[in-house]
């Protein structure tokens, strides 16, 4: 009799698990379909890197009534844990479409880290150095080839800017980049001090994949009901219009493969210095001549102003007269909000505080 009772209980438990799994699947599918926001592109092309991985280019349409500007194409590159929608989330909150509305030829680069759906072998090749050596040079050369331009303007968000720090003058010729905009791109990587003693003891091979995509989609519906310290780490909730955070969680978030996670962890637990092939990235910025505009959020916990300042200080430091500017977005500096990290791309006043200044900077036809 006890055996029969145990069997019934086991069947009941299994039935409950099946029901929970089905309900979870239905919940996820419903909210993904409801919150997915598709945007039009004139071109979508998948390119294969030398090591067999993939990157993707998308071209943003220019409105038909807009005169095409006689300026170089603009390449936008996303951050870690994100895809090409990082700077093209919503028609009203999109640097990409803001520039296209001014007649600029805008391209979005989806790095190997932003494509998702990797095979085991592909995930193992998602390293910061691989993107420096292959993804960025291939993406830039492809845009130049398809547009017939000799140079382009580059806008990097977070890791997108960090990749340029490491690639410019090394794997990407400086002559191919006319102007650079770095948005929330730290020159040094930091980790919360209370985590460091534990993180230093984690062997690289034990660093797991950050499985964020499904988790983000699953909690998107409730993400704006309340605030947590985790919200503040990612963005300033008071500086983002209702509905945008949910859209970002469904349309923009990607997993972070273990090798890329390990790269960032290694820099954070050592001295914060970004290194590629053993070389300190900031040292290579001293001779750069490219005019640059930097943005940092005053409340950014992932790329705090001192971390962005490190890259700003290094940029062209060995050259005379290099044009560069650092803008810290916060109330102490005359802005209406203290920007966190994510709201540098989708903040309530981002069109005025970031998009317009970026457009003006990139509209300068000086070489």
Tell me what the structure shows.
This protein is 39% helix and 14% strand. It has an eight-stranded mixed sheet, with helices on both faces. It has a two-stranded antiparallel sheet with strand order 7-8. Helix 5 (128-147) packs across helix 6 and helix 8 (213-219) runs antiparallel to helix 10. The chain is globular and about 75 Å long. The protein has helices spanning 2-35, 95-100, 112-115, 120-124, 128-147, 159-167, 196-199, 213-219, 229-234, 244-251, 258-269, 305-314, 343-346, 350-363; strands spanning 43-48, 54-59, 74-77, 106-110, 152-157, 177-183, 275-276, 279-280, 292-297, 324-329. Helix 2 (95-100) links the parallel strand 3 and strand 4 (106-110). It has one domain: Rossmann fold, CATH 3.40.50. The mean pLDDT is 89. The protein has 367 residues and is of the alpha/beta class.
Write the layout of secondary structure elements.
Layout: H1 2-35, E1 43-48, E2 54-59, E3 74-77, H2 95-100, E4 106-110, H3 112-115, H4 120-124, H5 128-147, E5 152-157, H6 159-167, E6 177-183, H7 196-199, H8 213-219, H9 229-234, H10 244-251, H11 258-269, E7 275-276, E8 279-280, E9 292-297, H12 305-314, E10 324-329, H13 343-346, H14 350-363
Parallel strand pairs: 3-4, 3-5, 5-6, 6-9, 9-10
Antiparallel strand pairs: 1-2, 2-4, 7-8
CATH-wise, what's the superfamily? Answer: Alpha/Beta hydrolase fold, catalytic domain
Helix percentage: 25-40%
Order of helices and strands: HEEEHEHHHEHEHHHHHEEEHEHH
Count of the domains = 1
How much strand content do the residues show? 5-15%
Shape: globular
Number of helices: 14
The CATH first-level class comes to Alpha Beta
Amino-to-carboxy terminus distance: 87 Å
The average pLDDT value, as a whole number, equals 89
For the largest sheet, list the strands in their spatial order. 1-2-4-3-5-6-9-10
What would the CATH topology be?
Rossmann fold
State the major sheet: 8 strands, mixed
Corresponding CATH architecture: 3-Layer(aba) Sandwich
| Total count of strands | 10
Structural class: alpha/beta
**Which value, in Å, is the CA radius of gyration?**
22 Å
List low-pLDDT spans. Answer: none
């Amino acid at each position: 009799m006890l055996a029969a009772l145990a069997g019934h209980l086991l069947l009941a438990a299994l039935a409950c698990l099946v029901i929970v799994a089905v309900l979870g699947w239905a919940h996820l599918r419903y909210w993904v379909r409801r919150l997915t926001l598709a945007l039009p592109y004139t071109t979508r092309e998948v390119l294969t890197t030398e090591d067999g991985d993939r990157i993707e280019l998308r071209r943003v349409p220019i409105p038909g009534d807009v005169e095409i500007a006689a300026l170089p194409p603009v390449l936008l590159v996303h951050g870690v844990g994100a895809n090409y929608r990082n700077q093209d989330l919503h028609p009203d909150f999109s640097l990409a479409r803001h520039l296209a509305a001014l007649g600029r030829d805008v391209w979005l680069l989806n790095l190997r880290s932003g494509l998702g759906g990797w095979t085991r072998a592909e995930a193992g090749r998602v390293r910061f150095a691989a993107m420096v050596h292959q993804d960025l040079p291939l993406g830039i050369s492809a845009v130049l080839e398809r547009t017939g331009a000799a140079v382009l303007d580059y806008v990097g968000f977070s890791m997108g800017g960090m990749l340029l720090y490491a690639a410019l003058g090394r794997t990407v010729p400086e002559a191919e980049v006319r102007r650079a905009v770095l948005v929330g791109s730290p020159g040094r990587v930091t980790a919360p001090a209370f985590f460091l003693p534990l993180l230093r003891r984690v062997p690289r091979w034990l660093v797991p994949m950050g499985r964020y995509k499904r988790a983000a989609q699953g909690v998107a519906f409730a993400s704006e009901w309340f605030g947590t310290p985790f919200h503040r780490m990612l963005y300033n909730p008071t500086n983002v219009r209702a509905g945008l955070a949910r859209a970002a969680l469904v349309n923009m978030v990607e997993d972070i493969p273990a090798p890329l996670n390990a790269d960032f962890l290694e820099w954070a637990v050592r001295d914060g210095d970004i290194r590629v092939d053993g070389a300190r990235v900031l040292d290579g910025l001293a001779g750069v001549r490219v005019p640059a505009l930097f943005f940092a959020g005053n409340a950014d916990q992932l790329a705090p102003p001192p971390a962005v300042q490190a890259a700003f200080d290094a940029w062209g430091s060995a050259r005379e007269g290099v044009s560069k500017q650092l803008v810290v977005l916060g109330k102490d500096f005359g802005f209406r909000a203290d920007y966190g990290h994510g709201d540098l791309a989708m903040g309530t006043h981002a069109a005025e505080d970031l998009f317009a200044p970026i457009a003006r900077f990139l509209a300068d036809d000086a070489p």
